[in-house]
């Protein structure tokens, strides 16, 4: 039995009390037994806080998923022990979240003058917290591209991912410099989400000579050129940590046949049955084993290699891989 941290519980208490006040304010206009049921639920949650059993599943006594408590402090069961009706409601939420998310993914192969792209997006569950974006810019002459990873899992993470998606799409319509896009996305993400929410993001734009890249705390993008591989270190912190975060960008020259590879840690932290990580080195080797291959073939080769490496081990994190290649 893992107890819920005391500070987390104390931060929920005022929110529960606020719900109680709102309910009482609206009580006259609502059916009395409905109000009573909700009041009982609220008071039971407050009693659980006092008794020290708050956040523990009433069936297995294990800790209830933190993200679910955060969204609804009244929950009494872990995901494994929902009633039939609650389980159906949860499954409907998942289904809807899956639909919302799949509509937000970019088209399969976005092309721009002189560039080809290919991405693979494979959530570990029904929905993912990874973010993947490809948007043509400048009337088809350029591209904006991004891969990100929202902290957390499940529906909560997938909704944060849709939030990040909306923020970036709105900012891109303003035609700002890349560093400014990321700085403002960070500010908006900070101001509109709770303090425990953050996202890593690697994003960029194609330029006349190559790409401009910003890495907000994301796993290091890879530049494949002239038979070698170069890693791009972070140029800023993850989004959502500090409202006044600063971001810089790097200009990276790419010529014909060179590629930029963005990915999420679902690839580099995939584990084999002996607990070894797939890691950056193996990713680079898998990419370099495909000289002259197009973006789609490179992505396919990496994903097959990850599956081979994992062997009997199930996928435990979302996987995203995006390749931008100069033709
Ligand atoms: Zn349980």
| Helical residue percent band | 40-55%
User: Which regions contain 5 or more consecutive residues with pLDDT less than 50?
Assistant: none
Name the helix and strand elements from N-terminus to C-terminus, one letter apiece: HHHHEEEHHEEEEEEHHHE
CATH architecture tag of the largest domain: 4-Layer Sandwich
List bound small molecules: zinc ion
Relevant CATH superfamily of the largest domain: PPM-type phosphatase domain
Spatial strand sequence of the major β-sheet? 1-10-9-6-7
The overall pLDDT average reads 92
| CATH fold-level name of the largest domain | Phosphatase 2c, domain 1
Anisotropy-based shape: elongated
Under CATH at level 1, the class of the largest domain stands as Alpha Beta
The count of helical stretches stands at 9
Strand percentage, roughly? 15-25%
Structural class: alpha+beta
- In this structure, how is the largest beta sheet organized? 5 strands, antiparallel
- The radius of gyration over CA amounts to 23 Å
Number of domains: 2
Oligomer status: single chain
* First-to-last CA distance: 56 Å
The tally of beta strands, per DSSP, is 10
Describe the protein's topology:
Layout: H1 6-26, H2 32-51, H3 66-71, H4 84-104, E1 115-122, E2 130-137, E3 142-150, H5 154-172, H6 178-192, E4 199-206, E5 210-216, E6 222-225, E7 228-231, E8 250-253, E9 259-263, H7 265-268, H8 279-288, H9 295-310, E10 319-326
Antiparallel strand pairs: 1-10, 2-3, 3-4, 4-5, 5-8, 6-7, 6-9, 9-10
Helix pairs in contact: 1-2, 4-5, 5-6
């Amino acid at each position: 039995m893992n107890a819920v941290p005391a500070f987390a519980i104390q931060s929920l208490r005022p929110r529960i009390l606020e719900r109680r006040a709102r309910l009482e304010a609206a009580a006259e206009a609502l059916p009395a037994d409905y109000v009573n049921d909700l009041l009982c639920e609220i008071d039971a949650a407050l009693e659980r806080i006092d008794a020290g059993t708050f956040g523990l599943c009433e069936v297995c006594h294990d800790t209830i998923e933190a993200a679910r408590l955060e969204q609804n402090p009244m929950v009494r069961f872990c995901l494994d022990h929902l009633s039939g009706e609650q389980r159906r409601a949860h499954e409907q939420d998942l289904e809807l979240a899956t639909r919302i998310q799949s509509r937000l993914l970019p088209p399969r192969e976005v092309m721009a003058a002189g560039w080809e792209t290919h991405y693979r997006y494979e959530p570990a569950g029904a929905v993912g917290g990874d973010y993947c974006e490809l948007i043509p810019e400048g009337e088809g002459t350029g591209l904006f591209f991004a891969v990100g990873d929202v902290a957390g899992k499940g529906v909560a993470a997938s909704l944060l991912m849709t939030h990040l998606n909306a923020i970036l799409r709105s900012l891109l319509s303003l035609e700002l410099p890349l560093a400014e896009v990321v700085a403002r996305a960070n500010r908006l993400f900070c101001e509109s989400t709770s303090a425990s929410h953050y996202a890593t993001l690697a994003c960029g734009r194609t330029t006349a000579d190559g790409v401009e890249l910003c890495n907000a705390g994301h796993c290091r993008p890879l530049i494949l050129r002239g038979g070698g591989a170069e890693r791009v270190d972070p140029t800023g912190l993850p989004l959502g940590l500090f409202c006044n975060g600063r971001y810089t960008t790097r200009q990276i020259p790419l010529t014909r046949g060179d590629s930029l590879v963005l990915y999420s840690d679902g690839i580099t932290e995939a584990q084999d049955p002996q607990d070894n990580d797939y890691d950056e080195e193996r990713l680079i080797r898998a990419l370099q084993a495909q000289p002259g291959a197009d973006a789609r073939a490179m992505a396919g080769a990496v994903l097959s290699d990850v599956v081979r490496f994992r062997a009997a081990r199930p996928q435990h994190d979302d996987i995203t891989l995006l390749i931008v290649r100069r033709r």
